[in-house]
Amino acid sequence: MHTIGETRDLYYYAGIMAFGSRYSFLVIFFSVAVALCVLFAAFSVLMILFLVNTDIDFFSSQSFWFIYETTGHGMLESIIAAVCLVAGGFIAFYLFRIMFRKTGSAEVFFIALFFFSLLFEVFRCGMYLVEIAGIAEYFSLVGTRIVFFGRLFGLLCLFAASLYGGDFHYQKFEIVIGVSILIAGFLAFSISFDKAVMLSNGLLKMSDESGLFIIFTALKGLVIANYVIFNAKKHSLHSIGGILLVLSGRELLFFSLNPVFLGIGICAGIAGCILLYRTLENYYNWI
């Protein structure tokens, strides 16, 4: 039989061990993020070298879900959007990683992973190089699937964060991460793409867009609904606004063909990240 003091010490020790293992996950993801940033820098240098004397003709452009234009414009805007997503994702991931070390919040942990997922947009730039070099279509297909894997994984992590923001107490983070990776991987690598059509955003055109649209819309709807329900109980609407701005900015930067929408997406993403960070920092430091 343990005394009350010994039991308290055991729980404290278990909590310290759990926090350490969770933070080690973020360290691993941070290492991957740094590697993706290095890869992005390499892609950027190669693009600058090749695109100066090379013209890429795209079959079409995608301005939003189901909306395509026959002219393949918008490559520059797509590259700028990818740069903003990668840079902004890395900075936000780094900041929320530090917040998790201070608070130990599960909600903050999975929001950090959501921002980490934005770094998979690096491969959009790699697809331009694949097109320029005339490499096998297989690499374009794999790169496109990796980008969609990152987008699905990010939404699944944000969905987990919305649950932990309420009354969800499941503590096996590695299980949640593993299931999210498996679901995102299965969906991303089961999507059919038209390998003959590369869009101006560097990705292959989806053959069946409706199924993926339903999945993305359902996940975003569940995230927003959870934050509305749980934050109404906390008497805080700021985090809801932050989530809406972040998701809106993310969506606009995915489909940026117009400088105006590109600018709106950047501003919405930055404002949402700042609002979400300040709200969660004040809330978890207060409790």
Radius of gyration: 20 Å
Strand content: 5-15%
Structural class, by secondary structure, is: mainly alpha
What is the count of DSSP helices, taking H or I runs of 4+ residues?
9
Give the neighbour order of strands across the main sheet.
Answer: 1-2
Could you say what the CATH architecture is? Up-down Bundle
CATH fold-type name: Rhopdopsin 7-helix transmembrane proteins
Order of helices and strands: HEEHHHHHEEHHH
Query: Between the first and last Cα atoms, what is the distance in angstroms?
Result: 33 Å
Q: Provide the helix percentage.
A: over 70%
**CATH level 1 name:** Mainly Alpha
Identify low-pLDDT runs: 1-17
DSSP strand tally: 4
Q: What's the mean pLDDT score?
A: 80
Main sheet record: 2 strands, antiparallel
Shape: globular
Count of domains: 1
Task: Characterise the protein shown here.
By secondary structure, the chain is mostly helical. 75% of the residues lie in helices and 6% in strands. It has nine helices and four strands, in the order H-E-E-H-H-H-H-H-E-E-H-H-H. It has helices at residues 4-51, 75-103, 106-117, 122-133, 137-164, 173-188, 209-234, 238-254, 259-286, and strands spanning 61-64, 67-69, 193-198, 204-206. The strands form two sheets. A two-stranded antiparallel sheet has the order 1-2. A two-stranded antiparallel sheet has the order 3-4.
SSE inventory with pairings:
Layout: H1 4-51, E1 61-64, E2 67-69, H2 75-103, H3 106-117, H4 122-133, H5 137-164, H6 173-188, E3 193-198, E4 204-206, H7 209-234, H8 238-254, H9 259-286
Antiparallel strand pairs: 1-2, 3-4
Helix pairs in contact: 1-2, 1-3, 1-4, 2-3, 2-9, 3-5, 4-5, 5-6, 5-7, 7-8, 8-9
